[in-house]
Amino acid sequence: PTSAWIDTDMGFDDLAAVLTVTQTPPWRVDGMSLVAGNAPLEVVIDNALRSAACFGWDFPIHAGSDGPLVGELVTAQNILGADAMASAGRSLPRTRAPLASSDAVAALIDHLSAADQPVTLLALGPLTNIARVLQRRPELATRIGQLMWMGGSAGSGNHTAAAEFNAAVDPESINALLDAGVALHMVGLDACRQVRVHAADAEALRAVGTDKAELLADLLLGYVRIASPAGTLPMSLYDPTAAAALVAPHGMSFRPAHLVAECKGEHTRGMTVVEWRVPRRAAANAQVASVADETQLRRVVLDALARAAR
Ligand code: BDR
Ligand code: CA
């Protein structure tokens, strides 16, 4: 496949992931569904429509779920800022592209039903929209050829000690997808932590010399500074690593595993429990990212950002 539908909670690393797809020929984006996660849905919509205007996206963008299947939305605004862009004072131009609809679940159902080939999905946030699609139309699981998801972890968490953020926001959705039999490829935190960017990468991007290069360099620098305020430490690429694994599949190795999300634990809600000992202890129900080729994957992302800046 060389096209994907993207489901995203549009913070800065989501934007970098979308640009990784749009700027890696021959890949293109069929459509986009938005979900609350990094920030409340209104902020996610604003980021997506402003990004679309700025970077000239021509695919339809649909607003979706404003909170998880169960419980209240928690956002990452404490880390990414109110605009979820890690922006350190820098923001996207105010012009917005139009919103195609406010029913992303219906739009994704239509897209899956109409496609003549199995559809590739790239999911960069909580899995709420996709779980709602399959709750309404379970038979559409077989129309999803591959669901590449940044989320979960085969190691420790970030939102809590046990849980990665996208998994922590909506763990019930993960199990709903697995129960529906979706071909899930999980690119977890432990895989993403192998692919890092540095302040120097932001400066190399700035050297492209356009207004968009300034914008992306400032946003990337704000993102790197999440790891250390002075920008001296590298920062892991989360969503862009999943996007790069999609468009450059030799850069990431996946292993079959049995996956389940913990939905009850007092200290472990949102933990993705990975049983690697398949089929001995359990039947595999997912492919889980294990070893990343850092050199290749960060190049794919940084080259795409440089092209987006031109
Ligand atoms: C994930 O959480 C979000 O804040 C990022 O956009 C990424 O999808 C990392 O845990
Ligand atoms: Ca995200």
UniProtKB/TrEMBL annotation:
Residues 5-296 form the Inosine/uridine-preferring nucleoside hydrolase domain. Keywords: Glycosidase, Hydrolase. InterPro entries: Inosine/uridine_hydrolase_dom (IPR001910), IUNH (IPR023186), Ribo_hydro-like (IPR036452). Transmembrane segments: none annotated. It comes from the Bacteria. GO terms for molecular function: hydrolase activity. The keyword Repressor does not apply. PANTHER family: INOSINE-URIDINE PREFERRING NUCLEOSIDE HYDROLASE (PTHR12304), URIDINE NUCLEOSIDASE (PTHR12304:SF4). This is Nucleoside hydrolase.
